[in-house]
Design a protein that fits this description.
4 strands, two-stranded antiparallel ribbon, 51% helix
Length: 260
């Protein structure tokens, strides 16, 4: 026990040195419970030194879950960092061996959150895009089981064409589901169609997305979802793609036809 306390005090000294700008006031003392709010705020602020100090002091593990907005029951540290675009924290967690495919209570991975959320102040999503690249290059799974949304679907919903291209290049499936014609959740093409992202839909179609696929729950295709929501201008292209079937040559013909 004495040795353990000595190590913990040593970790506190290191933590204080790392956190010289903010002092040690926000770190818990030996034997007290972790300040989950303080840790959450440090992750969102991209304070990797704070997170590292907390891990080194054994107040939290790299795969621990803590409460966060929307996930009050707790969610893994890496999902909080990815959602916030906290590049330095994600870099630390990757290096420390965190589970890159850990999920939120809603079954979202860090990669999915990085492809969906912008920065906290609503400006450029470049930090989240950097996080997405880091996760993929570190070995995060780009695909999910047939009953789940995917990072590509989230990127398509937000119209993030650069991420769509990147994810497809790194093995993301444009067609998801347990068979070629029916799915439980929206495909990437359906997500782009719902939001009316024309360039995203075109990218997915050129990559082989099948516009004939239907949702099991409603029977809707991407074209029908587009008409029902924000993508009415995409209906001619998607209807043509339904009739033509998947394939780059057919899709180029459909694009020309829809542009007339």
């Amino acid at each position: 026990m004495t040795e353990w306390l000595t190590e913990l005090k040593r970790a506190m000294i290191v933590a204080c040195a790392l956190l010289a700008a903010g002092g040690c006031a926000n770190l818990p003392s030996p034997g007290t419970r972790l300040d989950a709010d303080g840790l959450h705020n440090a992750i969102v602020a991209d304070n990797a030194d704070y997170v590292r100090a907390a891990v080194d002091a054994h107040w939290v593990g790299v795969d621990s879950s803590i409460p966060a907005p929307v996930y009050m029951e707790g969610t893994p540290l890496i999902t909080i960092a990815a959602r916030a675009g906290s590049v330095d924290v994600v870099r630390y967690l990757i290096a420390a061996g965190a589970d890159l495919n850990a999920q939120t209570p809603a079954y979202e991975t860090a990669l999915m959150l990085a492809t969906y959320f912008p920065t906290e102040n609503g400006e450029s999503s470049s930090r989240q895009e950097q996080v997405a690249h880091m996760l993929v290059e570190a070995g995060a799974a780009v695909n999910a089981h047939p009953y789940s949304y995917t990072a590509l679907a989230y990127a398509a919903y937000q119209g993030r064409d650069d991420l769509i291209v990147y994810l497809i290049k790194h093995g993301a499936h444009v067609n998801t589901g347990f068979n070629a014609n029916q799915v439980y959740v929206n495909t990437p093409l359906m997500m782009a169609a719902i939001q009316g992202h024309a360039s995203s839909a075109a990218l997915l179609l050129r990559a082989g997305a099948d516009a004939r696929t239907r949702l099991i729950s409603s029977g809707y295709t991407a074209a029908e979802l587009a008409a029902k929501h924000n993508g009415r201008s995409l209906v001619p292209l998607l209807r043509c793609a339904e009739a033509a079937g998947p394939g780059p040559a057919f899709i180029q013909r459909c694009e020309r036809s829809a542009a007339r």
